[in-house]
Amino acid sequence: MPYTISTDIRDDHLYVHVTGTRTLQGAQGVVRDSVEAAREASLDRILIDMRDFQGSLSVGEGWSVINKDLNRYRPHARQKVALLDMPSEQDRLRTFELIAANRGFNLRVFSEEAKAIAWLLV
Questions:
Q1: Euclidean distance between the first and final Cα of the chain, in Å?
Q2: pTM of the prediction?
Q3: Pairing between strand 45-54 and 80-84?
Q4: Where would you tag: which of 27, 34, 103, 114 has the fewest CB atoms within 10 A of its CB?
């Protein structure tokens, strides 16, 4: 099943809910669609809820999404992005968080929505 996203503006940030199967192409599409939706809403804070996005990316695929796909949106790198995912994905996503930080992106990983929102709105 391909991915789908739904978006909602909440408390000065864009909430993006992702469902479907997590693939490299799906992750690339989520990046593209989320950044575009935030741009259209004139918001620079994004919470991407991936708890219903099934599966995992390899470290190499995550590196590709950050280095190639996210990097395409460098003019919008001022954006703050919180990734919300299941606790079982936290170790893998922490690697992606580190890669993103090393490239100048303000991206953090969370397993609790309240903590993600608190960080996002500071």
A1: 36
A2: 0.91
A3: parallel
A4: 114
